[in-house]
Amino acid sequence: QWYQRRVRGPIYSFLDLAKMKWQLFLVALAARLSLNSGRMIFPERVYIKPGDTFSLTCEIPGEEVLIEKIYTPAEDLPSGRELERESNLIPIERFRAPGAGIATVGFTDATAETHQGYYTCVAYRKIGFPRVETATGYVIVIDLCADHDCTRQQTCVEDFVRFTHTCEGPDPTTSPPDAGNFIFPGPTEPPGFYPVCSIFPAGVIKSFNAAPAYYDLACTHVLAADFSPGGDFAQPWFVYGTFDQHDGNTAMSHMTIFAGGAAFEFQRGWLINRNGEKVPVEEGVPQNVGDCEVTFIGLHLRAACPHFYVYYDGIMSGHIRLGNSGTAKSSTEPVKGYTNVGLCWDNRSGFRPNWQVATPSGCEVDTEKQKCQDVMPSECNELKPSPFNINLVPWYFRGRGSHQSCNELNCEGQIPTEAQECALKQADKVNLHLRKVKELTEKKEEGACPEDECDWKRDLLSRGCPQENPPFQC
Predict the structure, then answer these.
(1) Between the CA atoms of 163, 340, 359 and 124, what dihedral angle is there, to the nearest 10 degrees?
(2) Residue 6 has what pLDDT?
(3) Which residue has the higher pLDDT, 394 or 127?
(4) Cis peptide leading into 130, omega within 30 of 0?
(5) pTM for this one?
(6) DSSP label at 406?
(7) What are the tens digits of pLDDT across the range 420-462?
(8) Crossing angle of helices 453-462/418-437, nearest 10°?
(9) What distance in Å separates the CA atoms of residue 80 and residue 74, rounded to the nearest whole number?
(10) Using CA atoms, how far apart are residues 465 and 446, in angstroms rounded to an integer?
(11) How far apart are the C-alpha atoms of 364 and 395, rounded to whole Å?
C-alpha cells in the first residue's frame, strides 16, 4: 500500500456559530446599505460589430458618490486596498460635483484584439458601505453574420442568446422546382453547460464563468454567497473554504455551508461537522441537515441545497454548482449579480483581501501574488482545454483550472505527491462532468489514483479526524 498512516488529531474546531452568524449579519447589512445607496448600473454584456463605434456608461445613484474610472481590458485594475486608499484621498468636493455619479467612455473602429474583454467600473462612496464598489461588463466584438449560410432570398439575423445566427425569409425546401432540391442546414446549436466553480489544489479556482485564477489563500475565505437569492434577504446563503498547507502546498481542508438558517462543515477525512458534533454519514444514504440533503457519493461529500450544490473530495478540492435539480443547461455566460460575492466570481471585495472572512495573525495573504510562471511541464499537457467549438461558446474556453493547478504543483521543480496527483486529476474530471451532466452519482475513474480504491479511502481517512465508522465498506 502506497499510503502512510498519519496520527489522528482532535476534531477540527468548528468556527463559533454565533460569531459566524454575526459576520453573516454584518455582510448582509453591508449589502443592504449598499443597495440603499443605489445599485451600480453598468451593462453586463455588450455585442459590437467589428469597425463599429460604441460607448459604455456607468452610473451609481445616491448622494456623495463618484465614478472613479472605467477600466478597459488593457488596463490593470488596482487592488481593493489601493482603491480604498485612493478613495480616502479624494476631496469631498469631487463627490458633490454635478454628474459625479455617472461616467461614459467611447471607442471607435472596434476590433476584437483591442476592445474585446472585461471592462470594470469603479465607484466610490463618501458615506454608506462599501466605500469601494465595482461592476464588470464583457464586450464581445464579433459579426455573427460574417460567414452566414443564408440564401440570397434570406436575411441573416444575429442571435446573441445562442451566439449564432438565423436565416429569415423563404425556406429553400419550399422553393419552386427550378431552385433544385437543396436542403438548407439549420444553424448549429451551441452546447449548454451548468455553472460550476471548482477549487483545485495549490490555490487555483475556476470560477462560475470558466475563468481560472490563482490566489494566495490562508485560513477562511468566502467562495460563493448570495445575500438575496430570488430577492429574499431573509434567506442568504454562504459557502466558505478553509485552507492550509497539506503535502507541502495549499489545500482546502474545510467547506463551511450556511443555508436555510443551518450551518455545517465538510472536513478533511469525509467528516460532516455540525455545531461541533460529528454527523454520521453512510455511502449512498441521504439525510437532511437544515434545508440541505447531504450524502457520501462518488468519493465526495455532497450537499444538495435549495440554491446550490456542494461537493468535497475529503482532502483538498471541491466544487460548487449553482441552481438545484431543476436547473437547465445554458450556453449563456454566468454573470455576477449585485448580491453575489466570493472567489468563485472574483476577488474584488474592496475591503477583505481575497474575500477572507477574517485575517487573524498568521493568515495574512498577498492579493498581488502572481501565479507560477514556469513553463508548463509535459505531464500537464493532458489537462489542456477540450476541443469544443470555441466560436459557439467563447466564454467557456478561458482556460482549464486543472492546467494551472498542475503548473503550481510542479512550480520551481516541486514534485507533486501521489495524493495531490490523484486529487487534481479527479477534480478535473468532476469539474467537466458537473458542467455537462449536472450531478455526480458515481466516482470518476482516474489512472493517477491507487488501483485499489480502498487504499485511497484509508489514506484519506488517516489525514483527517473521521467519524467512528467509515462511510464506506472496505
Answers:
(1) 90
(2) 38
(3) 127
(4) yes
(5) 0.64
(6) H
(7) 999 999 999 999 889 888 788 888 777 788 888 899 999 999 9
(8) 110
(9) 18
(10) 25
(11) 32
